[in-house]
Amino acid sequence: MAYQPTRAEGQALHAIALALRPEWTPRKEGDLGPGGIWQRDTKGEFPHAENFDHCLAALTDYCRAESKGKPRYTHATLFPGEGEHWTTTVPQSIEKNPRDPCEDHPHDKNNRQSCIGCRSEILAGHRPWNMQGKPLTPETRQIIPSPGINH
Questions:
Q1: What is the pLDDT of residues 67-113, one digit of tens each?
Q2: Do both 113 and 76 map to the same domain?
Q3: Cα separation of 52 and 38, whole Å?
């Protein structure tokens, strides 16, 4: 589902784009700035955005992207379209496909560093504490006794 920013959010995105890329300022009457281009091309909808924070992060990424020391994108027209500026800036709280998934718990849709499955195994003594987010081998997949328990 496409995200449609409010009028104030759209104006904020427009102002931020111009602050980051002042050369996108309309030069003569009738020229459109970033906000006008997005309104014209997408009717104000951002089909790849999850929310305003995602729009903001993707816009910042889009405006700051460089190739060989020069701005990668010379115009604001490509921003609403599909691109890595959308996929690399998905907020982790709503990320459908984690950037760095845990190999042992891919069904949990967690990033390696925050994998709940690994954390619960560590707390239960089934995974060494230093193996958070790392795949266990048959040698490392063993029950580790809790401290203070004598066998």
A1: 888 888 888 888 888 888 888 887 766 555 556 778 888 776 667 77
A2: no
A3: 15
Structure tokens given for 83 = 């691109």
Q: Could you tell me if 10 and 42 are in contact, meaning their C-beta atoms sit under 8 angstroms apart?
A: no
Q: Flag whether the pTM goes above 0.70.
A: no
Contact 13, 59 (CB under 8 A): yes
Query: 117 and 88, same structural domain?
Result: no
**Distance (Å) of CA 75 to CA 24, 29, 86, 112:** 7, 18, 17, 36
Please name the helix (run of DSSP H) or strand (run of DSSP E) that holds residue 70, with its range, or none. strand 70-71
pLDDT at 117: 85
Instruction: Report pLDDT digits (tens) over 40-68.
Output: 888 888 988 888 999 999 999 999 988 88
Residue 2 covered by a domain: no
Sign of the torsion formed by the C-alpha atoms of 12, 15, 17 and 20: negative
Distance separating alpha carbons of residues 8 and 123, to the nearest angstrom: 46
14's CB contacts (< 8 A; 6+ apart) are 33, 34, 35, 36, 38
> Is the separation of the CB atoms in 96 and 90 below 8 Å?
yes
